[in-house]
Design a protein that fits this description.
Pfam families (chain A): Fer2
Oligomer: heterodimer
Number of domains of chain A: 2
Keywords (chain A): Membrane, Transmembrane, Transmembrane helix
Strand order of the largest sheet of chain B: 4-3-2-1-5
Protein name (chain A): (2Fe-2S)-binding protein
Number of strands of chain A: 5
Strand order of the largest sheet of chain A: 2-1-5-3-4
Helix content of chain A: 55-70%
Distance between the termini of chain B: 71 Å
Strand content of chain A: 5-15%
Mean pLDDT of chain B: 77
Number of strands of chain B: 8
Largest interface: A-B, 35 and 35 residues
Largest sheet of chain A: 5 strands, mixed
InterPro entries (chain A): 2Fe-2S_ferredoxin-like_sf, 2Fe-2S_ferredoxin-type, Beta-grasp_dom_sf, SQR/QFR_C/D
Order of helices and strands of chain A: HHHHHHHHHHEEHEHEEH
Low-confidence stretches of chain B: 1-39, 412-439
Mean pLDDT of chain A: 78
GO molecular function (chain A): iron-sulfur cluster binding
Strand content of chain B: 5-15%
Shape of chain B: elongated
């Protein structure tokens, strides 16, 4: 259930970001093209229903992410996991000004357009442009890690995967190049018409008041002074940011409290690999990753793929029973009795001898072969 | 070890941007020798168009031609005073540099304000932020492409990293494949980031700045990949240097750190050099830029020094110590090594600050040569050790398999199982499974080790020479083509070095091969006859000397000819002498050579019984020219090898002897067969020669019928050496057995029928018998009695 909510909400958000980026990529043509394409790409999300879905997806994904951090047993993780978590943590502070600005603009009846935003990002507030780029990078990296981790254990992946990777690169790259190209266009326009430049320069403050969504069509009754709006924006930003810091620290502290209990160690002997000692409570996969013992884990420890399964060959550590998800996956991949998923198995204190079932370099394509079994066996030795 | 630090430094210094970054443009323009390396921004497209248009003009072309011709004349005229001019020029450059340094020192406090002013004039804060945005975007583009690459190739990389290579070749190719994949990824990253950047048009300074930042990232990544290739911090199986799991990651981190410092310094000073001339007060800005780049150079040197002092002593202690075998000097060497390295770095830094680039390079290159040579040697030893270990393990595995096979076979066979099994397992217990037990696999590496060492050392020496030449901006090959004295010397030097290299390689190879053969020879214990290896042992040193003389003569002649000495008369003289000596010693040479070939054929050994023509006997000794054969009756034949056409060896593998008995026609043949079998069993049980039998004594039945008897054949097959004794005893025992069982050998009895009724007197009877005997005797063919020992 949790897994399903996480991936569905993530996919919704990812689709939104992807469509937004494709829209930005039109900047390779011109700023007008961006604005012209805007209704087709963003219309789906700017209506009330779309906004509601988006908001719900964001909240669900955000809270599930915090829960996942709370449940982590160790903060020493694989590079991919670290990148994903850090990217997600950075997304919120980078995203706040954009969302709050848009919300405020909507509140005062200002319609956003690329024609006003691009000069703002490139000329009047380049730090905002930098922030957008960073936001895009982190968002996209986080999204890609999540989506591909989910997708590559799906049955259709072996057919579609090779074609989807280029898209994952092409969309943000084209969007960024479109952003650069549109920015250059805006700068050239400014250089070409110094009169307008002088005029717009005097209005720089106006752009700077929020994300720059200033059209001068705001109803007179709702209009407030710029300073006031700026102050509201800044206040809201800081409030959100501090709240966010508090929530994240609270989660980390709660996790620390949860883990404070066990201080026992477990000793794991990998067949054809080293013996390692680690604090109890970590999963076998986490322990292996920390000690450079390679275990295949295509789904990155989400109990989806079954490639991390290990054969238990002895030891006296207490082993928890398989969870529902683990049992399901084990049954699906046809694991022999005595095999468990390394990503889910959290041995208690004691010793444990495990043997890897699959080679560390299993490819996703190997999972869904028509004929079963001949997955590559583990390597002759391990170079850890 | 130490060496690696230095090697890294060299790699860093060889970075193409170095030259332009180190020399401020005005100095480079002042010095004609280095003017090619000016770091000027690329001309715009319009300028190029203009230049092309101007070059299209015929008048301009004509003028350029005449000017070039005039310039050529002046160069020829100035040929004599080049050296003096160069010295003067260098002195002037040094003086100028000193002035600049003083100025830079005095303007040091102003550096921040001056540079900030120049920076602001080129780049508004908005533009600076924007350039950062650009850099991030283009890095993202490159990173995205690289990610895409890894999506397809990451499993391959993991497979390479997690498969333990078993042989040297596999180890090298695994490390190489890993480097290739990572280098490809970096190349894709560079193409993605720089390519995307170049797709847009940029204002000059911004372009330089962004390109510098992108190049910096790429350079650091490339250097880190190189370091990872050599050190393989996480995967000891792919490591190319003998470092353990603790030191390799540390050294790798140091390498990356130094690379970052170096690249950052390089890029900052390059950017400032571009920035300085555009400032309002250009002279002051230049001084400031110079001050900053001197500071950055010092920082880099400090980083290198920190690395040296942090890593060298540890590495020397841990990994490299037993390999250098310096004996008592070791502790001193350990303490002195970091000091020496530091001195090289500091001197290089000082030379660089004072603007003497050529001298700096010379110090660096010479300072690097020794440690790099040591490094290469250690690496080669490391490779060969690993390879030998792997080969020994492989041999061991194969032996174990063979033994297992034997053991199972032996168990399956009913008879001699226990004995065989014991024999088979005994060596397995005796030989430790670990390395350095040289099996046939490991041995083939031992031969190439010195050759590879020698080759690498030579290549390094040549590379050093070329590097020095490049540092002094001379191309050796171009120099060799010029008709000046230096050119001729260079030409001769190239030839001499090439000849020396080849001769040395051939000599090392031959000497290694010969020494290995000699080392395998064990002198026989006193009292035992030496085998054919003994003759090899006398021949090989001779061949080695002949080879040495040949190589020396050929090498010397080639060198003489390249120096310009006419060697034709020498050759002719040597040829005449050679022909004369050749005719004189023709038969001697033939003896020696055919002796070698008989040895190679393994036609005879000391102690064997041979027949040559009509001479027979036991081989007693061999000399270079002849062999000595002792007849069993004591005579000694000396036979030159050249006289040997063919040779019969009676002591090889097996002999068959056939014995014949004449028995009367009424003999029971079955009984004979039984008796022979019985005697055969007795003979085989004999402790003295029983083990010589290959096939026991057995009856061949009746071989032929004669007038008065039949001939029963008996034969046996034995190893050479005891056949005569066996024959003697066989006759003996068979006769006894036949006698005991009532079989009497047929005896020749002649019946003379006398056609007369009356009894003959005794006297006449004897006369008749004598006459008949004489008649028979005269008819019987006297076959030559075989003369056997």
């Amino acid at each position: 259930m949790v897994r399903a909510v996480r991936i569905v909400s993530g996919l919704v958000l990812f689709t939104y970001v992807a469509m937004h980026l494709v829209n930005v990529a039109f900047g390779l043509s011109s700023i007008e093209a961006m604005d012209a394409a805007r209704p087709y790409f963003m219309g789906l999300w700017t209506n009330p229903l779309g906004s509601l879905v988006l908001m719900a997806a964001f909240l669900a994904h955000f809270s599930l992410g915090l829960a996942a951090i709370y449940q982590r047993n160790t903060l020493r993780m694989s590079r991919t996991d670290a990148v994903q978590i850090l990217a997600s943590l950075l997304v919120v502070p980078l995203l706040t000004p954009h969302v709050v600005g848009t919300a405020l603009a909507a509140r005062y009846g200002i319609a956003p357009s690329f024609a006003s935003l691009i000069p703002y990002f490139w000329i009047w507030a380049p730090e905002e442009g930098l922030r957008q780029v960073l936001l895009l990078a982190f968002l996209w990296i986080h999204g890609c890690v999540g989506v591909f981790t989910w997708a590559r254990v799906q049955p259709w992946w072996s057919r579609a995967g090779a074609f989807l990777h280029p898209f994952a690169v092409a969309i943000p790259v084209l969007a960024l190049l479109g952003f650069v190209s549109a920015g250059n266009e805006a700068i050239r326009a400014l250089d070409a018409e110094p009169a307008i430049a002088a005029d717009t320069a005097s209005q720089a403050d106006a752009y700077a008041m929020d994300e720059g969504e200033t059209e001068y069509a705001a109803p007179a009754g709702e209009q407030r002074s710029r300073g006031e709006i700026l102050a509201i924006l800044s206040r809201v930003n800081w409030t959100v940011f501090s709240l966010y810091l508090v929530v994240v620290s609270a989660v980390l502290v709660a996790r620390r409290v949860r883990l404070a209990g066990d201080r026992n160690t477990v000793r794991i002997a990998f067949a054809e690999g080293p013996d390692v000692t680690a604090p109890a409570g970590l999963s076998v996969l986490e322990i292996a990753e920390q000690r450079n013992v390679a275990i295949a884990h295509l789904c990155r420890g989400r109990a989806r793929c079954g490639t991390c399964r290990v054969r238990l060959a002895g030891g006296d550590a207490t082993l928890p029973h398989p969870t529902h998800e683990e049992a399901q996956t084990l049954a699906r991949v046809g694991a022999a009795p005595g095999e468990r998923l390394a990503c889910q198995l959290r041995p208690g204190p004691g010793t444990l001898v495990v043997e890897r079932v699959l080679a560390p370099y299993v490819r996703p394509g190997d999972l869904h072969r028509t004929h079963p079994a001949p997955l590559p066996a583990p390597a002759e030795g391990n170079a850890a | 070890m130490l060496v690696r630090l230095a090697a890294l430094l060299l790699a860093l210094m060889l970075h193409p941007g170095f030259a332009s970054a180190q020399v401020p443009p005005h100095l480079a323009q002042g010095a004609q020798t280095t003017s090619t390396e000016t770091a000027a921004p690329a001309p715009s497209a319009n300028d190029v168009q203009d230049l092309l248009r101007i070059l299209g003009d015929q008048r301009v072309v004509d003028w350029l031609r005449s000017a070039a011709a005039a310039a050529a004349h002046t160069t020829v005229d100035e040929e004599g005073s080049t050296l003096r001019a160069a010295i003067q020029h260098r002195l002037a450059a040094a003086r100028q540099r000193m002035g600049e340094l003083t100025q830079a020192w005095s303007s040091f406090p102003l550096v921040p304000s001056v540079l900030a002013e120049a920076w602001r004039s080129q780049l508004s804060p908005a533009e600076a932020l924007r350039s950062l945005t650009y850099v991030i975007i283009f890095l993202f583009v490159g990173g995205g492409l690289e990610w895409l690459f890894w999506q397809y190739f990451h499993p391959t990389l993991v497979r390479i990293e997690h498969t333990v290579p078993t042989t040297l070749m596999r180890r090298l190719s695994a490390a190489g494949a890993r480097l290739f994949l990572q280098a490809l990824a970096i190349a894709i990253f560079s193409i993605g980031s720089v390519g995307a950047f170049l797709a847009f048009a940029w204002p000059g300074f911004l372009e330089r700045l962004v390109v510098n930042l992108l190049l910096g990232v790429i350079a650091v990544r490339a250097l880190a990949t190189l370091s990872r290739f050599l050190l393989a911090p996480v995967f000891p199986a792919l490591r190319l240097v003998p470092l353990d799991d603790r030191l390799a990651p540390k050294l790798h981190r140091w390498n990356v750190f130094v690379a970052m410092v170096f690249v950052a310094s390089l890029l900052i000073s390059d950017t400032l050099d571009v920035l300085a001339p555009t400032a309002s007060d250009a002279a002051q800005a230049r001084s400031a830029a110079l001050a900053v780049s001197v500071g950055l150079g010092a920082t880099t040197a400090l980083a290198v020094l920190a690395m040296i002092w942090s890593m060298t002593p540890r590495i020397m202690r841990d990994a490299a110590a037993p390999r250098f075998a310096l004996g008592r000097l070791e502790p001193v060497a350990f303490r002195l090594l970091p000091v020496a390295q530091s001195l090289v770095v500091i001197i290089a830094l000082l030379l660089w600050i004072s603007g003497a680039r050529e001298l700096m390079w010379t110090v660096l290159i010479v300072g690097l040569f020794v440690p790099v040579t040591m490094l290469s040697r250690v690496m080669i030893d490391h490779f060969f050790d690993r390879a030998e270990e792997a080969a020994a393990a492989e041999d061991h595995r194969r032996d174990a398999e063979a033994q297992a096979h034997d053991a199972t076979a032996a168990l399956a066979a009913p008879g001699p199982a226990p004995g065989v099994a014991d024999d088979a397992t005994a060596p397995a217990h005796a030989s430790p499974p670990s390395a350095l037990v040289t099996g046939p696999g490991a041995e083939r590496y031992a031969m190439y080790r010195p050759i590879v060492r020698r080759l690498v050392r030579f290549l390094l020496a040549i590379a050093t020479l070329f590097a020095l030449a490049a540092a002094w901006s001379t191309d050796i090959f171009v120099l060799a083509e010029t008709p000046t004295l230096a050119g001729r010397i260079a030409k001769v030097a190239i030839n001499v070095v090439a000849v020396l290299l080849l001769a040395d390689l051939i000599w090392v190879w031959a000497r290694t091969a010969i020494d290995r053969h000699l080392a395998g020879y064990v002198a026989p214990p006193p009292g035992e006859a030496p085998g054919p290896e003994a003759r090899m042992a006398t021949l090989l040193p001779l061949m080695r000397n002949i080879l040495l003389v040949t190589i020396l003569v050929i090498g010397g002649l080639t060198m003489l000819s390249s120096i310009g000495v006419n060697i034709a008369p020498l050759l002719a003289g040597a040829g005449i002498v050679g022909v004369a000596v050749g005719f004189g010693t023709q038969s001697l040479v033939r003896d020696i050579v055919s002796g070698i070939f008989f040895l190679v054929d393994d036609a005879f050994r000391v102690g064997e019984y041979v027949e040559i023509g009509n001479l027979r006997g036991t081989v007693e000794s061999m000399s270079l020219r002849s062999m000595r054969v002792r007849h069993h009756r004591g005579a000694v034949h000396t036979i030159p090898f050249g006289e040997l056409k063919s040779l019969t060896n009676y002591s090889r593998d097996w002999v068959i002897l056939k014995l014949e008995f004449r028995v009367p026609f009424e003999t029971d043949l079955k009984l004979v067969k039984k008796l022979v079998k019985q005697v055969g069993a007795e003979l085989q049980a004999d402790p003295n020669y029983g083990h010589y039998f290959l096939e026991p004594l057995k009856s061949q039945g009746v071989r032929r019928m004669e007038e008065f008897n039949m001939v029963v054949g008996v034969k046996f097959m034995a190893r050479p050496g005891a056949q005569w004794v066996i024959r003697r005893d066989a006759y003996h025992k068979l006769r006894d057995a036949f006698e005991k069982n009532g079989i009497h050998f047929a005896q020749r009895n002649v019946k003379v029928e006398v056609l007369s009724d009356q009894p003959l007197p005794e006297q006449v009877r004897e006369a008749v018998a004598g006459a008949a005997h004489a008649a028979i005797e005269s008819r019987a063919r006297h076959a030559p009695v075989r003369d056997e020992p």
